[in-house]
Design goal:
heterotetramer, A alpha/beta, B alpha/beta, C mainly alpha, D alpha/beta, A: alpha/beta, FAD/NAD(P)-binding domain, 5 domains, 5-stranded parallel β-sheet, 19 helices, about 25% strand, D: alpha/beta, Rossmann fold, globular
Chain lengths: ~675, ~325, ~130, ~150
């Protein structure tokens, strides 16, 4: 039998005005197990806490019930006080007689009666409380960054800077991500490569950073502080330790017509290639789908010309096992496919391009060497039409995305401005629904495009783009402010395609047991207060994988995610929540129902040998909960048919004791 | 069929491929067929039977048998294979230790049903096509097959074996049964009528636990109703609510796992149509979360350990079923 | 009949929620009879929302809509302006209290050059 | 009869998840939004912690109504808990209805930490509904008292 002390707080008049606190403490004194019962003006005050501490010592209390304000308010306070007096903090229960009683009831008799019942329920629960100790788990002092774009690079650099080892896993042959494909960046018009490539080099040179390019995460096991990750290093058929990146092989390779993904298919590359001159790591990669040697065993030219002897046609995928304390997701985005937007003739005309393709067409390292030429005939375009919100803010039929892609207004202003600056003989139209430019110097930038560069901003949407036989694009649009329909003969149409999370993110989220929203963006632990953490402990979010954002915002979030990861890695041990599930192995059926509903992957199964009552031994499959991973939701306890799974602090019997105390037998 | 089965079992025992055979054994009366384990050819010869009384579902016994040393040969009727498959999905049976032979089934009768139809002094029974012949002390009597089969066989959901190592005879098809008709009929009643119906049925419960003990989904190492710590353990009813709680909880615990084999109703000594509770859950699951048949696809996610973001709200109960 | 009643009727017969409109104008951008209309598709949506029905109901624009449904197809928010135009037209027709084209009149109107669709559209437009 | 209706005080058990609904109940208190004292709240970590056994136990011990409150679907602190709770409770309530028990005695409501007013309104409505139904007899009476 527990020795329980009851402490009824007046909370000044907050409770005492509608609850007869003396009656409550007197009545509860007679409950079984209660050896001490009192009431006091402010239990949370220092003197109130001293009453609690003294009573614990003087009456050798094993359990404490405090009738006071909401446990959300002072549960921690009273637990701490109890612990100071030598009582296990989890032997304290709160009966909420303020928010859920005195404040909502005006009738003192009813309020008092309810307070007594709530007190009884808490006493009934404390009878079944058991001392709980928070467990500890060690922290592996290394971080994994998944994705090597600007978000991943910034996060990795910040973590490395703080003295921790970081691995970057990037599925492309080089790090750098989408930013490497951009020409200039708004609102300052720095060249993207000029600000990004030094950071890429920093990554390569930093002792704390290891880059696994052309690699993918294969499996994630473990939990915060102790993740076990399998990384698949895809075969490049090139020994990266020998390759000097001289590029000779990429000039000699006879397979010339492979669509160049770096230039979005606007030109071709060879079967052995280096994506671009500043690639990190700067090594060649053989594209197995197109290499003659790998497909038919006939060729071998690259091996012949390679002076370093780096070509290795027999190379195999390699699996690397690593342990990490923290994982940062920085998987980024891609523009959506526009094949469902027939009205813009994207698949019918080469001169209708996406904004990202337009970046390549204006980039000095792009297929046209930076001269803006019509992809169809290589002539200089005179009339350009930019269409905003293509697939963004769409709520109709699964063609587009319901959200605003956030970056299009600004990059379109940039494109329009740059075109007008370089080619003053052009007419540039931008069709917009709204121009959204919140950001430092953003609106000023957009206004400059209009005021200084004479870009025609037209409020309205393009309804139809029709390619004409002479190569012109007939653009039919609406000018809502002038209330007229426009027909423009354009040379090029540039579509601001919506952006969506990288398709690899969905599978990754499953491996990480990190949650996603309906658009496949990773969910943050709290939309305002914990924006860079996933609800799954130890997983942090960096960049567009969490939601659309531009480069400045991505970099800030990347550093924020790094700070959170550093905060975790700096700890030697993690304290766990002691109110976690546990399985009674003798009752467990091993049916896996609990495992299926666990959002954290905290439950694993093992075959365990049991000494049975009849002295035989039996091997049974039983569940075991990792207390460091379990967050204590209790989903498993209900999924379990045998009741083997129970939750410490909110056990079946505790909750039923509360139910009984509230209902009482009729 | 019986001879083929015995021959097969004998052969497998002899070759050492299996150590024991799980089948049916003749009892004192013809209709008293019961599950049994045979370990030798002699035992098989002596009492192994397969006839129209072999209704019991053997899959549950594999939980214990498959944990023994060596392999167990088991004969499974189509509906038993659903339970077998479901138990495999729940990791209750050691698959490597089982050699499953699928056997055909044309529906099984039982003593209760026959006696209920007025047959007495039953010696044996036989079915040819649609005619059922009962040999009794008082001579042979015939009846239409449909008249002597229990409800579960009349509304058989499938003649197709879900899983087996070997098949004797032909495999059948999944049938288009009317098994939810009675549930539907009850749903159409007013709540008062439903209440009256169930009061009439459940008030007969004597808490013998036969339904639980026979159920191939009720395989807990320790049942919550036997566990003192669970807070609801009570063999004897402390109050009149006890049986309701037992049956609702039992049906809930097997919801999404029950294959609708109908054993619960078969064994109930009080003839309570317990399978209707399970079928109600199955019907609700099918209607609310998409068609699901436990034991059919081992990779399918059980509806109660799965969800979609657009699931119906519990308030839907106020709008469907019952014309209050 | 009150304006509020008209509005209710129009919203109900069309099934359109004009509040979903985000004023992008893609309906008007895509409309083939834009120049024929006094009030354009996007204005229909806005005016119904604002309750400016007298102007709409008096306008010839409601008969100029070709019912080609391009605006319905292209609208990114699923607003379906053509249904609104049709509902306004229907409201006018109903208030006039008679059918301007009956099924029985059709055989006399048929000739080889007239597309079937024109008849169907006309019946949609001019009868209750 | 009228008199009886007004004097009947139902026993109502409310299971509230710690993160949303319990906080919503606290907010109702902070804003002094009243609801009958017949409602007694039991704090659980998540609506998915509510075992059907608890609900039946409450009825067994004389509760007249049981309400489960959790975070709105999609907002669960544990990401997915309330989705499971939603299925479980839907099926359980449907079963109780199937047995002829008044379905209005059970309810699930999603109440966020910000919805103090909704919490109070929900409780007022639920208490009124259960009061109208009167004492819970059917669950007990399902088996005839001899």
């Amino acid at each position: 039998m527990q020795r329980i002390g009851v402490f009824v707080c007046w909370c000044g008049s907050n409770i005492a005005a509608t609850v007869d606190v003396a009656a409550v403490s007197d009545t509860l004194k007679n409950e079984p197990g209660v050896v001490f019962s009192t009431n006091y003006q402010y239990m949370c005050s220092e003197s109130g806490q001293n009453i609690l501490k003294d009573a614990i010592r003087d009456y050798q209390l094993t359990g404490v019930v405090i009738c006071s304000c909401s446990p959300r308010m002072h549960e921690a306070t009273f637990r701490k006080a109890a612990a100071a007096a030598g009582l296990n903090p989890y032997m304290v229960e709160i009966a909420n007689i303020r928010e859920q009683c005195s404040w909502i009831h005006k009738d003192k008799a009813a309020g008092t009666e309810k307070a007594i019942i709530l007190g009884r329920a808490a006493i009934a629960k404390v009878h079944l409380n058991a001392p709980l100790t928070a467990g500890e788990s060690p922290v592996t002092k290394r971080a994994l960054v998944i994705g090597g774009g600007i978000a991943g690079i910034q996060t990795a650099l910040d973590i490395a800077e703080a003295g921790f080892e970081v691995d970057i896993v990037e599925k492309q042959p080089t790090i750098g991500g989408k930013m490497t494909q951009l020409d200039k960046t708004f609102p300052t018009l720095d060249c993207a490569a000029c600000i990004l490539t030094p950071k890429m080099v920093d990554c390569a040179q930093n002792e704390n950073i290891s880059i696994y390019a052309y690699s993918e995460v294969e499996e994630v096991k473990g939990f915060v502080g102790n993740f076990h990750v399998k990384i698949r290093k895809k075969a490049r058929y090139v020994d990266t330790t020998k390759c000097t990146g001289c590029g000779l092989c990429t000039e000699k390779c006879p397979v010339k017509k492979v669509s160049n993904e770096f230039n979005l298919g606007l030109d071709n590359r060879r079967a052995v290639y280096i994506p671009f001159a500043q690639a990190v790591p700067k090594v060649a990669t053989i594209d197995a789908d197109h290499c003659n040697m790998l497909k038919s065993g006939k060729c071998g030219l690259c091996a012949k010309v390679c002076t370093a002897g780096a070509i290795d046609y027999k190379q195999k995928d390699e699996i690397i096992d690593r342990e990490y304390g923290a994982i940062v997701v920085a998987t980024g985005y891609q523009p959506i496919a526009l094949d469902k937007y027939d009205e813009f003739a994207y698949s019918q005309s080469k001169d209708v391009v996406t904004s990202l393709e337009f970046e390549r067409l204006t980039n000095a390292a792009g297929p046209t060497g930076g001269t803006l030429l019509r992809p169809s005939d290589g002539t200089h375009p005179h009339t350009l039409v930019f269409v905003q919100c293509v697939g963004s803010r769409c709520e109709d039929d699964g063609r587009g995305k319901s959200y605003c892609s956030k970056i299009c207004c600004m990059y379109t202003a940039k494109h329009a401005m740059l075109v007008r600056e370089k080619y003053p003989d052009t007419e540039v139209y931008v069709f917009y629904i709204d121009v959204r430019t919140p950001g430092k110097n953003f609106d000023e930038f957009y206004r400059r495009a209009v005021e200084e560069y004479g870009v025609h901003y037209i409020k309205g949407m393009v309804g139809k783009v029709a390619p004409r036989a002479d190569g012109k694009l007939m653009v039919q649009a609406c000018d809502l402010l002038a209330n007229e329909q426009l027909h423009i003969e354009a040379d090029m149409v540039i579509l601001a395609a919506a952006i969506e999370p990288d398709p690899s993110a969905r599978h990754l989220a499953t491996m990480l047991t990190a949650s996603m929203d309906t658009n496949d963006f990773f969910t943050e632990a709290h939309p305002k207060l914990r924006p860079v953490e996933s609800p799954t402990a130890g997983i942090f979010l960096s960049g567009v994988c969490q939601g659309p954002k531009d480069i400045p915002e991505t970099v800030s979030q990347a550093s924020a995610a790094a700070a959170k990861a550093i905060g975790l890695l700096a700890k030697n041990k993690l304290t766990c929540n002691p109110c976690v599930a546990h399985s009674d192995e003798w009752m467990c059926n091993g049916c896996s129902a609990c495992e299926k509903v666990c959002p954290y992957g905290a439950i694993t199964y093992m075959d365990k040998e049991f000494r049975m009552p009849d002295r035989t031994t039996a091997i049974r499959r039983v569940a075991s909960v990792n207390p460091a991973v379990c967050q204590g939701c209790g989903a498993c306890t209900v999924a379990c048919p045998s009741g083997a799974m129970d939750l410490d602090g909110f056990s079946n019997s505790q909750i039923m004791a509360e139910v009984d105390a509230i209902c009482k037998m009729k | 069929m019986q001879e083929m089965m015995i021959a097969k079992a004998r052969e497998l025992l002899k070759s050492g491929a299996v150590q024991r055979v799980l089948g049916w054994k003749a009892g004192e009366f013809a209709y008293d067929v019961e599950p049994a384990v045979f370990e030798s050819a002699q035992e098989l010869e002596k009492s192994f039977v397969y006839n129209d009384f072999c209704g019991s579902n053997l899959s549950k016994y594999l939980i214990a048998q498959s944990r023994k040393e060596g392999k167990t040969l088991v004969f499974l009727k189509p509906c038993d294979t659903y339970s077998f498959s479901q138990l495999l999905a729940e990791h209750r049976i050691v698959r490597e230790n089982v050699y499953a032979i699928g056997i055909p089934c044309q529906g099984k009768t039982d003593g209760e049903t026959l006696k209920g139809k007025g047959f007495t002094g039953i010696l044996s029974a036989q079915c040819e096509g649609d005619t059922f012949t009962v040999h009794t002390l008082y001579g042979d009597k015939t009846a239409a097959r449909a008249d002597v089969l229990p409800e579960r066989c009349l509304n058989c959901k499938s003649k197709k074996h879900m899983i087996y190592d070997e098949l004797l005879g032909e495999d059948g098809e999944v049938l288009d049964s009317h098994r939810f008709d009675m549930v539907e009929k009850l749903e159409k009643m007013t709540p008062d009528e439903r209440f009256a119906f169930w009061r009439g049925e459940l008030s007969r419960c004597i808490r013998c636990n036969a339904c639980r003990n026979v159920c191939p989904a009720c395989t807990c190492e320790k049942c919550v109703f036997d566990n003192d710590a669970s807070g609801i353990a009570q063999k004897a009813a402390a109050d009149s609510f006890e049986e309701n709680m037992f049956h609702i909880i039992r049906a809930f615990h097997v919801a999404g796992r029950c294959t609708d084999c109908g054993e619960c109703s078969r064994v109930c000594p009080q003839n309570i149509p317990l399978h209707l509770l399970n079928r109600k859950f199955i019907k609700d699951i099918n209607e609310l979360y998409g068609a699901y048949q436990a034991g059919e696809d081992p990779d399918a996610k059980s509806p109660l350990t799965d969800y979609t973001m657009n699931d119906a709200e519990p308030g839907i109960v106020y709008h469907r079923g019952g014309n209050q | 009949m009150s304006k509020e009643f008209d509005r209710e009727q129009i919203l109900r017969t069309s099934g359109v929620n004009p509040r979903k409109c985000m004023r992008c104008g893609k309906c008007s951008a895509t409309c083939p009879s834009y120049d024929e209309m006094e009030y354009h598709p996007h204005q229909f949506v806005y005016m119904v929302e604002k309750g400016q029905l007298d102007e709409l109901m008096a306008s010839k624009s409601i008969y100029k809509c070709l019912s080609c449904f391009a605006c319905v197809e292209r609208c990114p928010r699923g607003v379906e302006p053509a249904r609104l135009v049709e509902a306004v037209r229907l409201q006018v027709v109903r208030q006039q209290g008679n059918n301007h084209l009956k099924a029985n009149d059709i055989p006399a109107l048929l000739d080889d050059d007239l597309p079937q669709q024109a008849i169907v559209t006309a019946l949609r437009k001019y009868s209750k | 009869m009228q008199n009886e209706m007004t004097t009947f005080k139902p026993k109502i058990v409310a299971f509230c998840c710690n993160w949303c609904s319990y906080a919503g109940a606290d907010l109702a208190g902070t804003n002094r939004l009243t609801y009958p004292a017949d409602v007694k709240i039991i704090r659980v970590p998540c609506s998915c912690r509510v075992n059907p056994m608890f609900i039946l136990r409450a009825f067994q011990r004389g509760a007249d109504g049981v309400i489960i409150c959790g975070c709105h679907p999609g907002d669960c602190h544990y990401t997915t808990g309330n989705y499971y709770a939603r299925r479980r409770m839907t099926l359980l309530f449907s079963m109780l209805d199937f047995l002829g028990i008044e379905k209005e005695r059970t309810r699930v409501e999603w109440v966020s930490a910000a919805e103090g007013a909704k919490f109070a309104a929900t409780m007022n409505d639920f208490v009124a509904t259960v009061t109208k139904l009167g004492e819970n007899k059917r669950l007990e009476d399902l088996r005839c008292k001899k």
